[in-house]
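Researcher: Let's run the pair from yesterday's discussion. Sequence first, then tokens, for each.
Model: Starting with the first of the pair.
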Amino acid sequence: MLGGLLAISAVAYHRRYTPPDCFDPRTVALVHGSLVHHFHLPESTRLQHIRTVAGGYVAFRFVCSAIPVGFTRDELPPGTVIPASVDYVSRLTPDGARHEVSVSIAAHLILEPVN
């Protein structure tokens, strides 16, 4: 009986407080929007090798990592950071009414000889 009550409570908690995970299309769409509008990457940008760094069935947030693909260096506007990886956090607002993501990119370092 107690096990059943705990299971029902976990499901109710999950539906109310757990945000969409790293692979959820809603999360990926928000990340894509941030990459295009904030980081000025092309619309053709996609995420590959998405992985969950932290989070689970009853998580308050998911910490995620992915590799951005679908563009070439020449397609980027001048001064745009060339991303090597994308890190993002999926969470709900404190009132649980809205899904939001925080996105950061790690720059791809290009080593060039200096004379």
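Model: Moving on to the second of the pair.
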Amino acid sequence: MDMRQVISMPIEEGRADILTWHLWDTLKIPKGVIVKANKSFELFVDPISKDKSWLDTCMTNAGVLPLPQHFNIQSMKPAYAELNNKQDNKLFKDNVVFVLIIGNKVYSCGPMAIFQELPEPENFESFLDSMRIARELGFKVNSHLSFLIGDDPIGHHILQGQRLKLELVFGKSISFEEDFKLIWFLDGVISRGVQ
């Protein structure tokens, strides 16, 4: 099946669809490559191609959703590949800043340290204990960044045809011990207009 059809298939003919949806894109950096300070990588700008599969990205157009779609970003989160070296994940987290740009405006930015990872528990009881201790100490563990604010939260709206990109900017020169892979998710609500 052509994934471009999956994104545009109406659920009910003649009516717009409003659905919980996810946008994703992937950053891949081969081991040993030196990423220079201030180098930035852009996500959500390279669509599916012979070099980029449906597993790598959901984008079928360069930096925009297919017309007549629009999307409300309610939260975003990075996910490190399971095969990544843990030290490489820490190196990335300690040295990279993210910048979310919709149109020509910055809607969110900050260090990757904003995204806290849950500890790796040995069992369910130790997981519950770690969460209880974190709460008692006043820590909030974030695995995602929410944009739901106020009484009628809709998140950050990407209008039809509006450009979207996420920049990952390296603060200093680094290289990874193993191949590095990160998938970035934008979670929210998509409106697929009448086709």
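Researcher: Give me one sentence on the second I can quote.
Model: Residues 95 and 171 are 5 Å apart (CA to CA).
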